[in-house]
Amino acid sequence: MPDQNILRLILGDQLNEKHSWFKTPDKKVTYVLMEIRQETDYVKHHIQKVAAFFAAMRTFADRLAELGHRVIYLRLGDANNQQTIDGNISDLIRKKKFTRFEYLLPDEYRLDIQLQDFCRTLAIPYLAADTEHFLTERHELKEFFAGKKRFLMESFYRWMRKRYNVMMDKDKPAGGQWNYDQKNRQAYDDEVPIPKALFFDNNVTDIVKTIRKKKVNTFGQIDPEKMIWPIDRIQAQALLKAFVKDGLPAFGTYQDAMTEKSWFLFHARISFALNTKLLHPMEVIEAAVNAWLRKKSKIEIQQIEGFVRQILGWREYMRGIYWALMPDMESMNYFNHNTALPDYYWTGQTQMNCLRNAIGQSLEHAYAHHIQRLMVTGNFALLAGVDPAEVDEWYLGVYIDAIQWVELPNTRAMSQFADGGLVATKPYISSAKYIHTMSDYCKTCKYNWKQRHGDAACPFNSLYWDFFARHRKRLQKNPRVAMMYRVWDRMDTAEQKATLKQAADYRKNLIHL
Ligand SMILES: Cc1cc2nc3c(=O)[nH]c(=O)nc-3n(C[C@H](O)[C@H](O)[C@H](O)COP(=O)(O)OP(=O)(O)OC[C@H]3O[C@@H](n4cnc5c(N)ncnc54)[C@H](O)[C@@H]3O)c2cc1C
Ligand code: SF4
Q: Relative to the CA of 230, which of 155, 170, 283, 375 has its CA 20 to 30 Å away?
């Protein structure tokens, strides 16, 4: 065989140093990483998200070079950067006479199709390799649920526990129960001090300067001298270690809690490290389970099970859902919602204290934890009837961990019920009562969480009942919400009228709430 000259593409979320590609340096192989407008511009991103991705990619390229690999790195401002994957790969093949092209399977449908289409145009052989990251194959979930109307996370999760022998006593779950959610629904009560956060001081000044100079359209805040997110494996492992020590012992108890006192509480903040593949999901699970095994008397089982469920269950499940429902999922809109996303999602300027907090910290840190995303921003968008395409655009842009394979099923399916209930058995909506129970936001809010109508009525209340009334045809047969229709039907007519009138007023004035 004539001398091989192989070009291998590494995408920004494929920074897996443990991948078999990198076991031994090979002179015949050159790796390429690229900062491109194609990726900065497909949606408006939070500035921290773009900066963190570029910083992690740069560090990864340096690391590969240090390990003896040949690396080409294209920066956003480089004159020879064609700003698209196809453009850069074609250019490199032509200029450097590569005889073969290889890439790692992308997690996003958009890139998967792009690379398949592009490869068909190549005159040289090509190959797509596995990323060696996930614990399931792309299409396994679809096969697991073949013939089923609903894709129940719980059955998938139990199967994963058995398959990977995680927290199992032979074929029974450790502790005798699969699920401890009932114990894991506490509001924050100051009983356990909130751990001091491990933040990194990554200097991304150069990157931010280029982003600004090149007029990449971003939003949100950043301190370029102290970008807090992990950008290499050492930092990612340190973050995981700090979480296991300080956050995990109370993770389950407070995983649904929200408070003005902290923007992350006991959450791990490892989603960026996981989604860029700096961390492997099994190493995260093992770190947590081993800590529990070592300190069984100190870490209760509900804390650890709650955490394992997120990674072994929800994360893999969402990925499977994505591949099972794409490309249709991108346009699903079960309720035909078409209201515009209120501007305060982009500015944080609203009088609703829960939204102000959840959005405010998202703009400040590119982060909100799961319940803030689901039960505050997502809940409100669904109650207000916002077009799921606009909701998606916001979630895909704002969070440090937002990559479509995980953002879309969480937003469209779980949060907005736009799939009509394949994923969630009922819409995740609530009135102010839930937010009042799970947070301290209502205490200082201009609105009154108890009121359904009247000057200070909390918008969540009337919009909640209005939602049920508007979507009666679609929802009343759902056994999980049938009870709410009975409650509504028993309410006296004057109360119903006043509630619906209040909702109509609020929907008209949505942008001013
Ligand atoms: C509307 C909406 C949009 C979301 N968009 C994203 C997204 O773009 N990217 C993303 O990674 N997560 C997303 N999530 C899931 C979840 O909110 C984040 O993974 C989590 O908040 C990340 O913070 P953490 O690392 O502190 O998580 P922890 O609460 O400490 O959990 C640990 C890990 O479990 C995994 N996990 C937990 N819940 C989920 C879930 N529902 N789906 C997938 N993984 C999960 C994450 O990898 C997370 O890092 C979304 C949730 C909702 C409701
Ligand atoms: S009163 Fe309503 S708007 Fe205000 S914080 Fe509570 S739930 Fe949110």
A: 375
Q: Please write the tens of the pLDDT for every residue from 16-66.
A: 999 999 999 999 999 999 999 999 999 999 999 999 999 999 999 999 999
416 CB less than 6 Å from ligand 1?
no
Q: What is the pLDDT of residue 296?
A: 77
Q: Does the reported pTM lie above 0.90?
A: yes
Determine if ligand 2 sits within 6 Å of the CB of residue 458: yes
Q: What is the mean pLDDT of the chain?
A: 95
Out of 344, 350, 351, 353, give the residue to mutate to test ligand 2, the one with the largest number of ligand atoms within 8 Å of its CB: 353
Taking phi over 0 as left and psi of -120 to 50 as alpha, with beta for the rest, 176 belongs to left
374 lines ligand 1 (CB under 6 A): yes
Q: Where are the beta strands (DSSP E) in 88-209?
A: 100-104, 126-129, 168-169, 172-173
How, if at all, do strands 218-219 and 45-46 pair?
Answer: parallel
User: Any residues with CB less than 8 A from the CB of 23 and at least 6 apart, and which?
Assistant: none
User: What's the gap between Cα 173 and its chain centre?
Assistant: 28
Least confident of 1-15, 114-128, 492-506: 1-15
> Ligand 1 center to residue 271 CA distance, Å?
6
Residues 434 and 449: their CA atoms lie apart, in Å, by 10
- In this structure, the residue with its CA closest to atom 3 of ligand 2 is 352
d(CA 172, CA 169) in angstroms, rounded, equals 5
Name the pairing type of β-strands 168-169 and 100-104. unpaired
Residue-level pLDDT at 1: 54
